[in-house]
Design goal:
- Helix 1 runs antiparallel to helix 2 and helix 2 (35-51) packs antiparallel against helix 3 (58-87).
- The chain has one domain.
- It is mainly α.
- The model has no long low-confidence stretch (mean pLDDT 92).
- It is 80% helix and 0% strand.
Length: 127
């Protein structure tokens, strides 16, 4: 068993799972979306991105691209969260939360593509 591939798969799957956990629920309900879970998803996604930098294959480039998309979406979601809670007088509104959850949904789509690529790569190696 290759420890590097285990760590790589762990962080790709963790980023997707945390992002799914944050994303799940009514899009505008502030109570069901936890900011700590958003930050955890962002941290796991950034770690997964860093782990993808060493791969020089075409599939590695696509893996890196999907991670960068997820990172960008989660960073924008976190910035909107901080801006809404710290910079506005009304705090986090359903409109702000809708933007945060929508950006998280885009990141989730990129995470799913990354997981599918990882699984397809495993299936191809087995053949």
């Amino acid at each position: 068993m290759n420890l590097e591939k285990v760590v790589f798969g762990f962080f790709i799957t963790l980023a997707a799972a945390l992002n799914f956990g944050f994303w799940t629920g009514p899009i505008d309900n502030v109570i069901v979306h936890n900011g700590a879970e958003l930050i955890a998803a962002l941290v796991a996604s950034v770690i997964a991105t860093v782990l993808k930098f060493g791969d020089r294959t075409q599939l590695g480039a696509v893996h890196l691209a999907t991670s960068l998309v997820a990172d960008l979406n989660l960073i924008v979601a976190a910035v909107v969260w901080v801006w809404a809670t710290q910079m506005t007088a009304e705090g986090m509104t359903p409109a702000h939360m809708s933007v945060v959850v929508s950006m998280s949904g885009g990141a989730l789509l990129a995470n799913v593509v990354s997981v599918v690529l990882m699984v397809s790569e495993i299936v191809q190696v087995r053949r």
